[in-house]
Structure of Calcineurin-like phosphoesterase domain-containing protein:
Amino acid sequence: MSAPYPVRLAGEELWLLPEKAIYWPAQHALLIADVHFGKAAAYRRLGQPVPRGTTSRNIAVLDGLLAALPCRQLIFLGDFLHGPGSHAPPTLKALADWRARHPDLSMTLIRGNHDQRAGDPPASLNIRVVPEPLLLGPFALQHEPASHPERHVLAGHVHPVYRLNGRGRQRLRLACFRLGERISLLPAFGAFTGGYPVERDDICRIFVIGDNEIWPVG
C-alpha cells in the first residue's frame, strides 16, 4: 500500500489512499466507490476489444489494502457490478475466491444505478446490500452525490478527474478526490472506468492521484 494522505472532514480523520479509496481509522472502515466488477467482460460479450484482467487487478489492489490496514468493514459506495453481463462465470468465480480469503470481514454495498441494472451480488458473497443513504457517524454514505439535510455526504458515481495544464498543449487528466463543504466525491476504484472532469472552487479541496501518491491542488 502507498502512503496515505490524512485529512479532516466533518470532524473525523480520513485517510485518502492513492489506490483510490478512503480509510476511516475510527471505524476501521475501508470505503471504495464504483468498482464496476465485470465491466470489461460485459463489453467483450458485446464484441468490443477491451483489455482483460481488470477484475483480477481490482481484486489484487483490494487484497493489498486489506492486508495493510486494520479493517473491520468494507463499504462499497455503489456500482459493485457493472451490469447483467457482469455475471459471467469467470468474474463470479474470481469474486467468490476473493470473498473466501476474507470470510470474517463485514461487507456492505450501497446500491448504485449500475447495481439496480446488474442485480445484487450473489448471496454466497455474503455482502449486505442497502439503499442509500447509509448513516455512519457524521457521514451519509451514498452512491449519488445528493445533499443530505444533516450529514456530510461521501459519494461516488461521478468518477471525478481533474485536468492539470502544463506548458503548451500538455494536459493531464488524473483521478481525484473532491472534498466539498457538504458533499465529497471519491474517485472510481475500478481499473476500467472513465472519468468526469471536476473543477476547484473556494470551498472545495482537490487531491489528485499520480505516481502512487496524493497531491493537493492549489
Summary: Residues 65 and 211 are 17 Å apart (CA to CA). DSSP finds four helices and 16 strands in the chain.
